[in-house]
């Protein structure tokens, strides 16, 4: 096996080991929490049973104590409090890794009580909203950041710096409330709660299944309805994130433009466009790719307050519902899925770096991404 293969394999195994350790910690916390909660339930049930026995004058004190101890033992066995804690943690790890966590106490998102179904439904909705916004922000940020770097010190560059500071200082949930106030309450252009989109989509699906809508019309109306309900949260996320993205790209590109290989390329008469896209952007690609991939993964975790403000049934809102309703299994499932996505992203980044950075491929010390002029 080559040195690159060994490096990638080692990094992948390290990431998977990290995932298992984190899952073990989550499982241990849940087992401890569940043990404490069930202990309290057993104590309460035994106390109620003791009060009932106290009303029976035919039983002696010894008989009452024997019945109370037997009831406590039965309850502990029924609630699973008599097993080995290590075995409980291991079983919980297996259940968490496979999302085999049973049913929640209520349907918080979607149409199923199963925790697995609710998490998958929420993850899909978060991906629709935040992956779309992340891609838009990344594309706009790279384009504007590149242009600002070429015009460093000029009016656009100064404007971008002001915009980056301004947008980064705005809380996303606060901007979302302003957007709702203006476009939903005042102008009545967009809906107040985005969760109603799924009611509309189900109605369209029923009309399509009954033959009232053709496939083409159904597809157009489905896309239109989705964009209509997603417009405000999408615009909010893009507005708040765009300036910072562009400013980071601008700084990375300006740093690369002062490198020696860029100076050599310009001295050889290479066209400025080729210098920018063939030399500068290529050498700046590793940090930019890292930003894009990690932003995509972080977006899958949703934004608790933002999704709550807009009523978007994603991972953030599901996480919040799990906290409000004391659903430890649901909370553990959402946490595990977010961590799993992050670990997968890091593994993918390792392989992308092997393609972009010559130092990773050759094991040498060549400067990353420096092409021949």
UniProtKB/TrEMBL annotation:
Membrane topology of this protein: Multi-pass membrane protein
GO biological process: transmembrane transport
SUPFAM superfamilies in alphabetical order: MetI-like (SSF161098)
UniProt keyword Nucleotide-binding, yes or no: no
Gene Ontology, cellular component aspect: plasma membrane
Keywords per UniProt: Cell membrane, Membrane, Transmembrane, Transmembrane helix, Transport
Presence of keyword Transport: yes
Record-annotated membrane-spanning stretches: 12-33, 127-148, 160-185, 227-248, 288-313, 333-356
Gene3D superfamilies xrefs: MetI-like
Domain of life (superkingdom): Archaea
Protein name per the record: ABC transporter permease
